[in-house]
Please model this.
Amino acid sequence: MTTRSEKKSLNSSGINKVLQQFGNGTEGTLSPSRYEIMISSNGTRNATNIEAMKRLSLSCETAVLPGRNISSTPKRIAGPVREMPYESIYSADLDLVFRVGSDMFERKYFETWMDMVVNHKTHTLSYYDDYVRDIEIFQLDKSDNIVYKAVFRECFPKTLNPIDLGFEKVDEYMRQSVSIAFREYEVGEFEPQTGVPKFLQRHQVGITRPDLLGNHDAGVPEFLRRPENFGVPPFLQP
Model:
């Protein structure tokens, strides 16, 4: 039988282990305020696109990582029912909130992107691979090392939420929330000891990652891709 003094010793030992676990550098808790986001561009890599990606990364105030579900159906053979999985689904869209600058860049950016999906004048749809792109979200530790990376594939803005204006909002700043549709996300590979990539470091001037604007439509089915000679007159086609 455990005595009162032995119980006190065990409890004290357990508390010390917990404090040691959360106090050292390899284990502990993460702060949800330490993260970075990168929206890749599917256009030509130039100074304008690079500055746009940098600004969106810095102005993203909130990012909500969606959950994952496994759909199942009850199956009875004999005895209690078994839940049999048949597909993996995601609980919601990728929700982002941006601080809006004095030039309304953050809202204009997503309005332009949505016009690439559906032309608001002609109401025609664009080819799928012309407007989808990848979005990466990095969770950082206290030393700005990457401990988790989620790569969202085939993204496009689904909902540009309204912005409330009012005379009583004198002491507030404008925010723009966006819901991003995506096909899937995967946990990316990274080297924890390398720290934050240069293109995500706040003191960096440029973006140095070479594959940021790479083959973004590698996983897009062939029938959704724009034809190679789309828009080229027949007499100019090879």
